[in-house]
Specification:
Number of helices: 11
Strand content: 15-25%
Number of domains: 2
Shape: elongated
Distance between the termini: 93 Å
Structural class: alpha+beta
Largest sheet: 5 strands, antiparallel
CATH architecture of the largest domain: 2-Layer Sandwich
Number of strands: 12
CATH superfamily of the largest domain: Reverse transcriptase/Diguanylate cyclase domain
Order of helices and strands: HEEHHHHEEEHHEHHEEHEEEHE
Oligomer: single chain
Length: 311
């Protein structure tokens, strides 16, 4: 009996939850830590079943582990990664779910076979994992997106363009690539400074993104190559007329004035169009065809869209 009391005294000092249940699933021990995080005192818990205490809100995996512990003397650790809500526990400071793992192991308590549940608070570990994942996502995003406009950068465009070419070859689903070069952007930079130029780029990038999302139902991709050059991928284009119609619309959208510090700034856009596979069946060939078509549009007066010649 003194040994049993020593065990209980030790358990009461632990900064982890300890519950002991007997073969009838009745609670024999309920330490201060578990009493604190549940708000249920030892006097109220002792002699009751876990289901009664937690209103049956127990993960079946925990119920199975207790069964195997008592009947087969098997120990088992249930992690929060696989079982995020073993028991309905909450954090005392904000009432958010308390992330926890549970070690289930057979013991002898009060001279009878029993099952010990050691409940560890892993909330801080989960938070660190979440922060790490968020940081990794941020790094990945910055590596694939233009920092000024938020559009895809050249790296992501290259990956996506290769994917589109591979998918198009597999399923015979043509798509179009639009090469957009802004007309008169250098003049805005020279007259009003780079701050104004950056503002114009951000506004026009957003217009491109919105127009593309509306046209492609969110399946297209807008990218900035650098400077005043941008690219748009249009999926499921079956005829060059469709791409030309969108490009002409885009010319109008990008030519609308931009108000910066009370001043109306305006640039235009020359757009070259290349269709897979007519003007290229590889990323490099498509980019070259669209780039050539863009220069043709500039040569014919700017502010317009031109289709690439068949190669």
């Amino acid at each position: 009996m003194p040994l049993q009391q020593d065990f209980k005294n030790l358990v009461n000092l632990l900064d982890t939850g300890i519950i002991v249940v007997n073969a009838a699933r009745k609670i024999l021990l309920w330490n201060p830590f578990i009493a604190r995080i549940t708000g249920i005192s030892e006097n109220l818990a002792l002699g009751h079943s876990l289901n009664a205490i937690f209103n049956a809100s127990i993960d079946p995996a925990l119920t199975d582990a207790i069964e195997q512990c008592i009947e087969m003397k098997l120990a088992r650790r249930l992690s929060h990664q696989l079982h995020p809500a073993l028991l309905p526990l909450v954090q005392l400071n904000n009432k958010q779910p308390l992330h926890h793992s549970i070690l289930v192991q057979p013991v002898v308590y009060e001279q009878q076979a029993a099952c010990l549940l050691q409940i560890s608070d892993v909330t801080s570990t989960v938070r660190r994992e979440q922060h790490l994942r968020a940081a990794m996502e941020q790094v990945r995003y910055l590596a694939q997106h233009d920092t000024l406009t938020g559009l895809a950068n050249r790296s992501l465009l290259t990956l996506e363009l290769q994917k589109r070419c591979d998918l198009a070859a597999k399923n015979q689903q043509p798509f179009a690539l639009l090469f957009v070069d802004l007309d008169g952007f250098k003049l805005v930079n020279d007259r009003h400074g780079h701050e104004a130029g950056d503002f114009v780029l951000k506004v026009l990038a957003e217009r491109l993104q919105n127009a593309l999302a509306s046209f492609s139902k969110g399946l297209g991709l807008a990218a900035r190559l650098g400077g005043d050059e941008m690219v748009a991928l249009l999926p499921s284009i079956t005829a060059s007329d469709q791409a030309l119609e969108f490009a002409n619309h885009l010319c109008g959208v990008l030519a609308e004035t931009v108000v910066w510090q009370g001043q109306k700034l305006q640039v235009g856009a020359s757009i070259g169009i290349a269709l897979w596979p007519q003007q290229g069946d590889t990323p490099k060939a498509l980019m070259k065809s669209a780039d050539n078509a863009m220069y043709l549009a500039k040569a014919r007066g700017k502010g317009q869209a031109m289709r690439a010649l068949n190669t």
